[in-house]
Predict the 3D structure of the following.
Amino acid sequence: MTEGKQHVQRVFSGVQPTGNLHLGNYLGAVRNFVRLQDDYECVYCIVDLHAITVRQEPETLRRSIRELAAAYLACGVDPQRSAIFNQSQVSQHAELGWVLNCIARMGWLNRMTQFKEKAGKDREKASVGLYDYPVLQAADILAYRATHVPIGEDQKQHIELCRDIAAKFNNDYEVEDFFPLPEPLIQSAAARVMSLRDGSKKMSKSDPSDASRINLTDDADQIAKKIRKAKTDPEPLPDTVEGLEERPEARNLVGIYAALNDQSVEAVVTEFAGKQFGTFKPALADLAVAKLGPIAEEMQRHLADLSHIDEILAKGAERAEAIAEPVVREVYDVMGLLRTR
Ligand code: AMP
Ligand code: TRP
């Protein structure tokens, strides 16, 4: 919690436009974006400047930005209530990003596990942007003085870094509570949806195997087939949650069922205790098709009208800029950067 000065309760989150949204993105993040609209002012970004930290094909990137906007809309993000826009249209992200580069410390960035994973063995060849990625992410959040950030488990470290950057700015410039320290909002049931092919890896857009993930654009046959072929073990389902502990694939499928059906893992375990995967998998496939089918249809409907999507992004960017511009002005002022216009 932030002490002292009360900040407006505001939600900010972002997703990279780097391919189809999958079930992990949906259950771990976007579904919460939708729910939070009831209680908060929300700003939902398509983080295209983050996407270019690795090479993107220009045409593919442009298409992916609009597809992600369509996915947000199809999942229920409401442009009347929330600002939906792509990051590069609001220059304050990049501006504040530079300022925060001068606040964040090398030692802090050196600890970021996502950079280590994404850069792989040849770190010398990674772009400077990939290394700096979490600082731009902090700028995204702080430009809106956001107080809450819905994300999957893998982003927790980046939010902690954002808090450290905010606290250091407040402290160095003796402006107590200038930036709120944002809280991560992590949905426990689906904080980390795992690959369908390997229960030790998270479901990811970048996994070369399409069978490892359920895309929001998959049709009913594809969903059913991927679940049928999902890796499992030979045992029937246990009758307690503890019984899932050493069974990552079983735990993942039960977790997905629980999250999709808005149930607790306990309730699902009780319902399917002692059942074989031959029974559980078709039930899961039916549930997934029932929940995701309408989203895929809505997405196609939105994608049939690109000018409508572009209009939403333009309006969203205007709304976002109206919040972020005065914040960046204040930051410049606090730091002594002279403005004469
Ligand atoms: P990304 O696709 O990396 O831009 O992620 C967008 C959002 O989805 C972030 O909040 C991630 O934490 C979340 N996310 C990505 N993969 C998963 C997963 N396998 N399980 C749960 N959440 C995820
Ligand atoms: N780094 C996040 C991801 O890979 C995307 C992101 C960028 C983000 N800026 C953000 C998420 C700000 C939350 C808040 O998923």
Q: What stands out?
A: The chain is about 50% helix and 5% strand. The pocket of adenosine monophosphate (ligand 1) is lined by residues 15-16, 24-25, 28-29, 151-152, 154-155, 190-193, 202-203, 205 (CB under 6 Å). The chain has a mean pLDDT of 96.
